[in-house]
Recover the amino acids of this structure.
């Protein structure tokens, strides 16, 4: 029991940190620019593919740096040559633009690397057990992922709150014309923010690529959960996204471990439940079976009870 | 003026359409996922069918007519499949080929039955090459449906016959996808293990959502905690690969008894850790015969690359049987072909195959195989490949059926 609980907690934290890696860039872009970037998961996927490809040429460690930089460049390009023009037409146009972009990236990836998953295996450099606990091993790459995820949080927080650059970024957002009048390059700031957000998605993709499956449906597979976290954490709140990621990761993992159903609960309360009880089929579904839907239940709950999420400043 | 042009265009269109149907050809509708999540398997199957159809056409077609494969994308969705089926029939298809997803197959078989009742003289046949829910050839069977893959129960019977002989297996964990097929696998495993090895304890019976789980680590932690020495799973595609990957990461040491351990990517994902522990039940694998089959070699040559790893041997059986039946019936009319296929026996390089007359389920040899190092023919260029543990002859795979089908006239 202790063994299962320990592992559930550990797995939950790992999954939560992975989710945070995925969402941090999205949250950054949203909080800074007000753009809900539907192509974020696609950039994440692009990061996975690029790191695979670059890794083949120069090895894993350089790829860990190069792939996110390339994704950052892609992001900068998207902002400079796409979003900047669409921005004038309002948020709907922006959302549609990024939405269309996600399809474009998926097709592009399919054309270059094919429909099947590429052999993006765990690089030898991080493919060893970090430690063994109760006879189960904990892979080193998950440790690396945890370190990267936490550094992302610290880096972003410091960059935004403690540097001059962060001040300019925040100023450019709340008072663009004033910041511009003071001689700051506001469009340039926007481009930089989008590039950093995309670079973070790319960095997440490097790790996520071999943790999950590097295939063209990767973006679709992680897309929905990313938005759940942003809503539950509060739109545009970095700390909120972190809390939501951890909460969802741990909740979902523990739910898998619970083999009880509503039938067990009702029986414990003294009700008599048999196979002929109405809706027995529904009542007998185990918590473990519905575990992966837990985040979406949470999403619905939050939209009803607290639409602004944990730390959001305004309603969704 | 504009109206006049319209008329010319529609006349030309009509002429083109007539010209199309005038050329004698047998139209086959292939309804399977060609985009989205299931596209990789759907497209591979499409290539395999096209390959064998081209072979038949090159030899002169069937009864002097060429076969044309028309593809329809159903996105593995039953509702979408029915729309595509309607479209296919409108375009003149008299044969339907589908395989991905038992829910889709159940929808199609019912729609085909209805169509054939209402349109005598325009019957459509349904060739199912991969949907393995036992219901399709039992309670939900009908005269128009033929299955060329062994059903979930038959595969489980083969798998458990090997498990029964292995005394090291004591604790089994079942993990399956939460839908009709996954539940069928779990039920069959519980029943057959109970009969063949009552001493084996089933220490877990897990259902998880279909193709929704990204991280299987929590499930692996549970398997580990249960003390299982063997895991039985019907998982396919991502669910198979990610499960096995998570198991490898946690250092889980179990026998993987699978239906689709041969799924593209699984062998690459588990790598050396799967040697001697990853097993699958299939109608064929590369090392089933001492030399690689000539058509498989030709397929590999025509479609090189990892994503075209040959995996539908049953498609070969299906098209050869179809051609033989049409020849025997001396007609390409679906009803006559159906009567000819019923009860048909055929010799293949692997042994005898037979299409059962009572429920239209094929009986073909089944192999239980284990992943091994440096076999003669490896998969996905991994240096690893399958080696047979046991072969079950076609006639021995037969199980009792509850099918009561009504035959036309």
């Amino acid at each position: 029991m202790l063994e299962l609980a320990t592992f559930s907690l550990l797995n939950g934290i790992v999954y939560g940190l992975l989710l945070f890696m995925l969402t941090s860039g999205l949250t950054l872009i949203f909080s800074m620019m007000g753009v809900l970037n539907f192509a974020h998961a696609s950039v994440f996927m692009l990061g996975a593919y690029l790191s695979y490809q670059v890794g083949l040429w120069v090895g894993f460690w350089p790829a860990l740096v190069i792939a996110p930089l390339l994704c950052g460049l892609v992001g900068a390009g998207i902002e400079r040559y796409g979003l900047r023009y669409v921005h004038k037409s309002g948020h709907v146009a922006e959302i549609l633009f990024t939405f269309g972009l996600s399809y474009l990236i998926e097709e592009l990836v399919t054309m270059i690397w094919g429909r099947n998953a590429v052999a993006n295996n765990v690089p030898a450099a991080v493919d060893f057990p970090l430690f063994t606990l109760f006879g189960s091993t904990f892979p080193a790459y998950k440790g690396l992922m945890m370190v990267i995820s936490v550094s992302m949080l610290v880096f972003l927080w410091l960059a935004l709150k403690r540097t001059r650059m962060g001040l300019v970024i925040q100023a450019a957002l709340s008072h663009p014309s004033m910041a511009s009048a003071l001689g700051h390059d506001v469009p340039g700031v926007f481009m930089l923010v989008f590039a950093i957000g995309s670079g973070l998605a790319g960095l997440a993709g490097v790790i996520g690529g071999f943790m999950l499956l590097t295939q063209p449906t990767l973006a679709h597979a992680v897309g929905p959960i990313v938005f759940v976290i942003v809503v539950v954490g509060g739109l545009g709140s970095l700390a909120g996204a972190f809390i939501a990621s951890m909460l969802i990761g741990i909740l979902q993992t523990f739910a898998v471990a619970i083999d009880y159903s509503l039938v067990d609960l009702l029986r414990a309360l003294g009700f008599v439940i048999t196979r002929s009880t109405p809706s027995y089929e529904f009542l007998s579904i185990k918590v473990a079976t519905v575990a992966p839907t837990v985040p979406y239940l949470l999403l619905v709950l939050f939209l009803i009870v607290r639409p602004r999420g944990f730390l959001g400043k305004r309603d969704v | 003026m504009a109206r006049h042009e319209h008329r010319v265009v529609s006349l030309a269109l009509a002429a083109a359409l007539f010209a199309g149907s005038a050329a004698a050809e047998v139209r086959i509708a292939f309804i399977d996922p060609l985009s989205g999540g299931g596209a990789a398997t759907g497209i591979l199957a499409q290539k395999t069918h096209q390959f064998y159809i081209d072979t038949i056409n090159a030899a002169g077609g069937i009864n002097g007519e060429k076969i044309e494969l028309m593809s329809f994308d159903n996105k593995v969705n039953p509702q979408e499949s029915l729309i595509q089926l309607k479209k296919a029939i409108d375009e003149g298809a008299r044969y339907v080929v589908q395989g991905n997803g038992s829910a889709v197959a159940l929808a199609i078989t019912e729609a085909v039955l209805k169509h054939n009742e209402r349109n005598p003289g325009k019957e459509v046949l349904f060739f199912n090459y991969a949907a393995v829910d036992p219901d399709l050839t039992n309670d939900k069977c009908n005269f128009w449906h033929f299955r060329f893959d062994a059903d979930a129960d038959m595969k489980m019977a083969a798998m458990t016959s090997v498990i029964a002989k292995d005394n090291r297996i004591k604790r089994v964990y079942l993990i399956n996808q939460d839908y009709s097929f996954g539940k069928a696998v779990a039920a069959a495993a519980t029943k057959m293990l109970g009969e063949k090895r009552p001493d084996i304890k089933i220490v877990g019976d897990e259902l998880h959502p279909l193709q929704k789980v990204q991280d299987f680590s929590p499930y692996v932690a549970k398997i580990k905690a249960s003390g299982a020495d063997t895991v039985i799973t019907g998982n396919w595609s991502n669910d198979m690969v990610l499960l096995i990957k998570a198991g490898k990461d946690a250092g889980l040491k179990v026998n993987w008894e699978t239906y689709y351990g041969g799924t593209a990517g699984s062998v690459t994902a588990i790598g050396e850790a799967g040697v001697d522990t990853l097993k699958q039940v299939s109608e064929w694998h590369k090392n089933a015969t001492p030399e690689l089959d000539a058509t498989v070699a030709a397929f590999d040559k025509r479609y090189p690359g990892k994503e075209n790893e040959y995996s539908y041997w049953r498609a070969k059986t299906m098209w050869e049987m179809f051609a033989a039946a049409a020849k025997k019936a001396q007609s390409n009319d679906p009803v006559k072909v159906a009567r000819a296929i019923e009860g048909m026996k055929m010799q293949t390089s692997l042994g005898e195959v037979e299409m059962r007359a009572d429920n239209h389920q094929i009986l073909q040899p089944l192999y239980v195989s284990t992943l091994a190092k440096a076999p003669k023919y490896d998969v996905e260029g991994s240096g690893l490949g399958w080696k047979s543990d046991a072969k079950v002859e076609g006639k021995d795979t037969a199980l009792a059926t509850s099918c009561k089908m009504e035959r036309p006239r």
Notes: The interface with chain A takes residues 36-37, 39-40, 43, 178, 206-209, 212-215, 217-219, 221-222, 224-225, 238, 241-242, 249-252, 264-265, 268-269, 271, 305-307, 380 of chain B (CB under 8 Å). Residues 153-282 of chain B form a domain with the Rossmann fold fold (CATH 3.40.50.2300). Chain B has two domains: 24-150+300-363, 153-282. The first helix of chain B runs from residue 2 to 22.
